[in-house]
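User: Can you help me understand a structure? I only have the sequence.
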Amino acid sequence: MNELAGGRGHAADNRRERRPLGRAVAPAGRSTAASLVQDDLRRAILAMELRPGVPLSEKELTARFGVSRTPVREALIRLKEEGLVEIFPQAGTFVARIPTGAIPEAVFIRQALECATVELLARIATPEAIARLDATIARLHEAFDIGDQENFHLADEAFHETLADAAGYPGIWKIAQAAKSQIDRCRRMTLPVPGRMAMVIREHLSIVDAIRKGRATEAVAAMRTHLGTLLPDLVHLQAKHPDYFV
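Assistant: Let's start by predicting it. Here is the structure, written out as tokens:
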């Protein structure tokens, strides 16, 4: 990754501690082992540590995770069902390319869910809820100041999760997460763009300011704008990384 937003740093990947792909799998049933492999591979794929089109060798994965081939195959099949892995019987297994046509629908679903969330929250937000949202924005600032893209992303996720929880419907965030896996890979690619992280912070501040003032219509508009910025970015991402998309 290249420059950070606002020119505050360079080469963020070198600054953060990457969690190594593959972790020791404690003795457990086959299903549990498969889940651990699935979760770690999903994290690496969504974080763009495993790029679209990268081959996934069952032999290498069994050695890396310290498990037999059965849970690895089970994990890969589950990831295929999530649209994150492609399996070709005669050619091998690969990290799936990002389906361009699925992005607008995923954005639409997320906007529908989260705009409804902030509309409600603007009417019922407590001082404690506002304080929790302010705390997530403080985390964004801290990560931005040191060029930590990983923690910036995690703070961004925490902000949206807190919105759903404060509105009294934490399940909304779980549904949104299921719909946004392909969005996440695109979002990861936009973070190094100069000014991007600063823009995300401004957008979050606008959402919280509207909620704080009880202005539901403004909160909805701010959220819709925030979540819609990815669509124009998609054109540039495809032009820069054509091999990542299908």
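Now, to help you interpret it: The radius of gyration is 19 Å. The first strand starts at residue 85 and ends at 88. Let me know which part you'd like to focus on.
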